């Protein structure tokens, strides 16, 4: 019912009204991109301004007639508002314009319905659509009437509107139960990764910032990426090898947008929990967008809404290839910790710096040490290589392995403990080092 899309775009009239009383206005350019992303065919873009929205039609009578004339001129099947309309405003506009009317929330829901691919994604979109529709039900036919007095006048006792509302409540309840099972499965997966001490790194950012392209660069996953809003909807998890650290799980998530409909935040809570429970967030920013500061604020607002505002964040300024005179780099704070990485996910420039920054943030204190291993410690040597911790190796005349390793302090302690070994008392693992320390001979 909710996923049968028309084969061609629909001719649409776009309406954007500047409301003087609103501080945070919607972006007209982003609105047009949303319509194109939904498959719409914009025929006219009508703009205007008002002090306050009209409670009846949202717009004034003069602007309403202008919209009606555009609908008739272009034979439009749809009028889309870049605003949130009340159910009564939507009904009044449809009655006057004689065509379908969609608001910003309905438009975003439609895009999500087109992008949903997994069973979980379809459930989440349908839940959001049902919650949005529940306030917009109206009586379509009258074969179920209210009870009346008199012989032969007693109806079923339930109107069609009441029946529709009951069916919606039942379907919403069923979807919520299914999503609870999804949430339980995700929690089980997170517990398993936690027991295996595999951290999760989640990509977040404004829609079309380049998250999926970066995800593909880091994991070679071949996830769908396109230059359009909400190209990615379903969350994807892949393992990624982080130098000098080991394996981490990288999560590609749905992009955010200004004034993200509350229904979507609630419906996608199961997916967004992957972000809230992550060990590190990579906030991907379109560095070529002049309004990126405002978009950063919008993303931070959504992160706060889903409870992810306390998670460590590394900003990733993407699309460096669109900027002149700027090369890949890592920006650090006063303590030397990475806070921002400049790169191009499309060309791959700076991706190695991103992996280095991720390694530093996940590892905490890094240690660099030369280990001298006996030939019998082949399994320990293999584990160090699997972690990507070995920087250099040499074998002396006695057959001993001299390994220069660089990895997280706690990881080195754990690997040694797994092999029943301990470090020399002279070797202090408590502090990060900048140069190789005296050799630690094992065995």
Fill in the keyword field for this structure.
443 residues, alpha/beta, Rossmann fold, 7-stranded mixed sheet, 4-stranded parallel sheet, 21% strand
Explain what this protein looks like in three dimensions:
By secondary structure, this protein is α/β, with parallel strands linked by helices. The chain has 13 helices and 15 strands. The strands form three sheets. A seven-stranded mixed beta sheet has the order 6-7-5-8-9-11-10, with helices on both faces. It is elongated.
How are the secondary structure elements laid out?
Blueprint: E1 11-19, H1 28-37, E2 41-50, H2 61-74, E3 78-81, H3 87-97, E4 100-102, H4 104-115, H5 119-133, H6 160-195, E5 200-205, H7 211-219, E6 236-242, E7 246-252, H8 262-267, H9 269-276, E8 280-286, H10 292-305, E9 313-318, E10 329-332, E11 338-342, H11 351-363, E12 366-373, H12 378-386, E13 390-395, E14 401-408, H13 409-418, E15 437-441
Parallel strand pairs: 1-2, 1-3, 3-4, 5-7, 5-8, 8-9, 9-11, 12-15
Antiparallel strand pairs: 6-7, 10-11, 12-14, 13-14
Helix pairs in contact: 1-4, 4-5, 5-6, 6-9
């Amino acid at each position: 019912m909710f996923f049968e899309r028309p084969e061609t775009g629909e001719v649409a009239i776009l309406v954007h009204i500047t409301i003087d009383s609103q501080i945070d206005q919607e972006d007209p350019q982003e609105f047009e991109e949303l319509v194109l992303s939904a498959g719409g065919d914009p025929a006219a873009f009508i703009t205007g301004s008002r002090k306050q929205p009209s409670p009846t039609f949202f717009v004034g009578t003069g602007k309403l007639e202008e919209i009606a004339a555009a609908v008739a001129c272009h034979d439009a099947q749809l009028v889309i508002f870049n605003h949130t309309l009340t159910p009564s405003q939507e009904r009044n506009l449809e009655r006057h314009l004689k065509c379908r009317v969609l608001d910003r929330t309905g438009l975003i829901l439609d895009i999500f319905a087109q992008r949903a691919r997994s069973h979980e994604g379809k459930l989440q979109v349908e839940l959001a659509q049902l919650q949005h529709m529940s306030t917009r039900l109206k009586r379509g036919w009258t074969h179920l009437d209210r009870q009346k007095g008199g012989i032969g006048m007693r109806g079923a006792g339930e109107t069609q509107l009441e029946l529709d509302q009951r069916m919606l409540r039942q379907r919403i309840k069923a979807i919520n139960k299914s999503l609870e099972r999804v949430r339980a499965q995700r929690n089980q997966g997170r517990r398993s990764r936690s027991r295996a001490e595999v951290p999760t790194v989640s990509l977040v950012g404004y829609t079309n910032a380049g998250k999926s392209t970066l995800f593909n660069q880091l994991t070679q996953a071949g996830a769908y990426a396109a230059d359009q809003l909400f190209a990615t909807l379903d969350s994807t998890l892949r393992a990624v090898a982080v130098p000098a650290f080991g394996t981490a799980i990288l999560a590609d998530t749905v992009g955010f947008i200004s004034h993200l409909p509350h229904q979507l935040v609630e419906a996608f809570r199961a997916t967004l929990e992957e972000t809230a429970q992550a060990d590190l967030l990579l906030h991907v920013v379109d560095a070529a967008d002049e309004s990126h500061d405002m978009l950063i604020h919008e993303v931070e607002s959504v992160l706060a809404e889903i409870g992810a505002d306390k998670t460590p964040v590394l900003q990733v300024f993407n699309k460096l290839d669109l900027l002149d005179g700027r090369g890949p780099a890592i920006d650090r704070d006063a303590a030397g910790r990475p806070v921002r990485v400049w790169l191009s996910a499309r060309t791959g420039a700076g991706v190695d710096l991103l992996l280095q920054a991720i390694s530093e943030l996940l590892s905490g204190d890094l240690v660099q040490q030369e280990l001298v291993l006996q030939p019998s410690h082949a399994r320990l040597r293999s584990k160090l290589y699997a972690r990507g911790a070995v920087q250099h190796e040499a074998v002396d005349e006695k057959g001993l392995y001299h390994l220069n390793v660089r990895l997280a302090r706690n990881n080195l302690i754990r690997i040694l403990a797994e092999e029943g070994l301990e470090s020399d008392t002279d070797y202090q693992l408590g502090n990060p080092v900048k140069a190789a320390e005296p050799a630690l001979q094992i065995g």
